[in-house]
Write a structure and sequence with these properties.
42 residues, mainly alpha, MmpB-like, transmembrane helix, membrane, transmembrane
């Protein structure tokens, strides 16, 4: 690899999008668990 090669790192927009999708996935998972608990209580 040459010293002039760009770093193998995604651009900032892509990293921000990935972080947002990861947070969204966690929120959806928590919402599903909460929904299951509410349905289970009834």
């Amino acid at each position: 690899m040459l010293w002039s090669d760009p770093e193998n790192e995604p651009p900032k927009e892509l990293r921000d999008t990935q972080n947002m999708l990861r947070r969204l996935g966690v929120l959806v998972a928590l919402a599903m668990i909460l929904t299951m608990l509410v349905i289970g209580v009834r």
